[in-house]
């Protein structure tokens, strides 16, 4: 592969990788990190598509083998950051399906419309599948037919009351196109299509949030009802149960609940 792209690494990201010199299976790949050229506050490495894939695989393996949880989190974050550069190769959209795997325990999630909590769907999804998979099945479950951008919001701590702005207290996982087209003013965002359910470390009764269509703002509350289900031979993710008819996609959602204000 002749095409290469320049990937910036912060000093802390490069130093993190340098700590694992003896654990790198490919010494040539490690050498590219070690001799990276300083450019202002960053270091730059020049990689082709295969080298980037190898580096991502190596970082993922380092994370899996790391016993220190703090270091593991740093490696996972670095892998997420570098994964975004994969889209710069080829003709366009990366193969997001490569990040989804129909493996692991079955999670049962109840997805309720925030504007009408009596309208809900129960979803079964495997641990190795992604938030983008979850978006796709929720899209189907609520009988939508026109795709829009979306984000999932995972609160960093249990919420006793609704926050003034859920954005300020949550980690956001968003549609990959949104990462390319928007500026977030320093907020940290993750690619939903590259984030598996198991990496979220969800627990039973935990709640998180899903926003579909940033214009019409269809908010959903997702409640975790199970995390250790046994898989069968049927398709995942899938709809387990429906309650009440879906509202029309372009109807006016009720505005009695708004995350921008306290109750």
Descriptive notes:
With 263 residues, the chain is of the alpha+beta class. It has two domains: 4-88, no CATH class; 106-243, MM3350-like (Structural Genomics Hypothetical 15.5 Kd Protein In mrcA-pckA Intergenic Region, Chain A). The protein is 25% helix and 27% strand. The strands form two sheets. Strands 8-7-6-9-10-4-5-11 form an eight-stranded mixed β-sheet. It has a three-stranded antiparallel β-sheet with strand order 1-3-2. Helix 3 runs antiparallel to helix 4. The protein is elongated and about 60 Å long. It starts with a strand and ends in a 20-residue tail after the last strand.
Which key terms come to mind for this protein?
alpha+beta, Structural Genomics Hypothetical 15.5 Kd Protein In mrcA-pckA Intergenic Region, Chain A, 263 residues, single chain
């Amino acid at each position: 592969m002749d095409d290469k792209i320049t990937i910036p690494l912060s000093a802390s990201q490069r130093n993190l990788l340098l700590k694992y010199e003896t654990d790198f299976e490919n010494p040539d790949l490690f050498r590219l990190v070690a001799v990276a050229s300083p450019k202002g506050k960053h270091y730059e490495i020049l990689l082709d598509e295969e080298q980037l894939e190898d580096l991502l695989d190596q970082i993922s393996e380092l994370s899996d083998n790391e016993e220190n949880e703090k270091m593991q989190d740093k490696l996972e974050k670095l892998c997420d950051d570098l994964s975004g550069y994969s889209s710069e190769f080829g003709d366009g959209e990366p193969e997001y399906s490569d990040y989804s795997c129909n493996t692991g325990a079955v999670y049962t999630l109840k997805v309720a419309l925030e504007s009408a909590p009596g309208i809900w769907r129960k979803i079964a999804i495997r641990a190795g599948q992604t938030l983008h998979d979850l978006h796709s099945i929720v899209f189907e479950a609520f009988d939508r037919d026109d795709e829009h951008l979306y984000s999932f919001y995972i609160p960093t701590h249990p919420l006793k009351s609704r926050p003034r702005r859920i954005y300020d207290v949550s980690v956001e996982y968003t549609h990959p196109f949104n990462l390319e087209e928007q500026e977030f003013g320093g907020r940290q965002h993750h690619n939903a299509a590259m984030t598996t359910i198991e990496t979220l470390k969800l627990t039973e009764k935990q709640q998180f949030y899903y926003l579909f269509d940033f214009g019409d703002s269809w908010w959903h509350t997702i409640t975790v009802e199970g995390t250790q289900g046994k898989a069968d031979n049927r398709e995942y993710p899938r709809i387990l149960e429906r309650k009440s008819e879906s509202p029309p996609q372009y109807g006016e959602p009720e505005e009695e609940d708004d995350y921008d204000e306290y109750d």
